[in-house]
Write a structure and sequence with these properties.
alpha/beta, 12 helices
């Protein structure tokens, strides 16, 4: 008998996300084929693994023998530690408070250094612990976001040489400013030239970082020379091309190959209630949708608070009984209304697919994103972390 007084009792959520193990493993195999045997793969799992669920993707990475994970923050790194069951290298690309540096060093977590304040704090933390800080030195090559400028580099290198007991230089790294678009070609080429020049300065100063890494998914495809020792792959592991242009470029050079990437994600909800609406009545807030005939409307318990953008009002589509049906009226904070007039035997609790497949129909993330005028990256990462995510075969 269920004990409903038990605080661990799990109530039903308004929607759920399924993550395909087989799709992930297929994408990993494709990425490894692209990179070749001499390049290390770092799986980028920032942004709650691009909305797919950090813990779930960390589990799949370990199943796929991926031993290097990139996160944005110390908080994300800590979440991975809790589900780690194999040796993993965790690399923080961005945010770590200086107060958390001793914690990171104690747990062998590596981190980017791109300013003197963090570098000095890392020296002090390492000295107190009696353990080296494993750092990735990020240099500014033209992104103008984070990274040491060229004129700062000599002083930074001198500090590294003076602190061999506190600092271990793992890599020299940078990030490209839009490698997915050929409109940025000259800028990317200039960045690569700058990086190579700065790398020469590092080696001339007597330092030899074991790793060089500059490339993301787009750069690894469009600029093979940027793959170097390690590549930070994010969006492709989740089954998406960085953009349409990148996909076209790849397919142009591989015309006989079907799309090698498989989407992992399927987002599902269910019908909350069903209502008949007479011709001439408005549906939902305001007067944005007028029933042009007698209609049957179903409500679904998702809305913009759950990642279903308000811009999908009156234009979005979902799948019910294997058919595409329209979102009607304004998307609410917690609800959408859908037109199920033509669906026979519609019932409360029937499955509604927001993203993914049902029958032989599909609602892709790309189409969802285009309708809501969002990037794939943006739409996925906005899916709330509290939506339950489960791994399927």
């Amino acid at each position: 008998m269920t004990h409903f007084s038990d605080p661990s009792y799990s109530v039903q959520h308004t929607s759920g996300i399924e993550i395909s193990r087989s799709a992930f493993l297929s994408n990993v195999a494709f990425v490894r084929q692209i990179l070749g045997p001499g390049v290390k793969l770092s799986a980028v799992v920032k942004g709650n693994a691009y909305g797919h669920g950090l813990e779930q993707i960390a589990e799949l990475c370990q199943d796929a023998d991926i031993v290097h994970l990139s996160v944005f923050s110390a908080q994300e790194a800590q979440r991975i530690l809790k589900v780690r069951r194999k040796p993993l290298t965790i690399m923080i690309l961005g945010m770590i408070d200086n107060r958390d540096l001793p914690w990171a060093i104690a747990h062998d977590i590596e981190f980017f250094v791109f300013e003197r304040d963090r570098l000095n704090a890392a020296v002090e933390a390492a000295r107190q612990l009696g353990k080296k800080a494993r750092i990735h030195l990020e240099v500014e090559t033209g992104m103008n976001r984070t990274g040491f400028d060229e004129e700062e580099l000599e002083e930074v290198l001198n500090l590294l040489k003076k602190q061999p007991e506190e600092l271990e230089l793992v890599s020299l790294c940078t990030h490209f400013a839009g490698a997915e678009e050929m409109a940025n070609y000259l800028r990317i080429r200039q960045q690569l030239e700058t990086y190579n020049r700065l790398y020469d300065k590092v080696t001339e100063a007597g330092l030899q970082p074991p790793l060089r890494h500059t490339a993301c998914s787009a750069a690894s495809l469009n600029y093979p020379e940027t793959r170097m020792d390690l590549v930070r792959i994010g969006i492709m592991l989740y089954g998406f091309w960085p953009n349409l242009e990148t996909r076209i470029m790849y397919m142009r050079h591989n015309p006989e190959q079907p799309d090698p990437l498989r989407r992992l994600i399927c987002w599902k909800s269910r019908i909350l209630s069903i209502k008949k609406v007479k011709m001439g009545e408005y549906i939902g807030y305001g007067n944005s949708y007028l029933a042009s005939k007698d209609m049957v409307i179903a409500t679904v318990p998702v809305g913009y608070a759950y990642g279903f953008s308000r811009s999908l009002s009156n234009v979005g589509r979902v799948l019910v009984h294997g058919e595409r049906v329209a979102v009607v009226g304004v998307v609410n904070m917690n609800l959408i209304m859908i037109n199920v007039t033509e669906i026979r035997q519609i019932r409360k609790d029937d499955e509604v697919v927001l993203i993914g497949s049902q029958g032989n129909k599909n609602i892709s993330v790309s189409s969802f994103s285009e309708m809501s005028q969002q990037l794939n990256y943006e739409m996925l990462s906005r899916l709330p972390a509290d939506i339950p995510r489960t791994i399927t075969d």
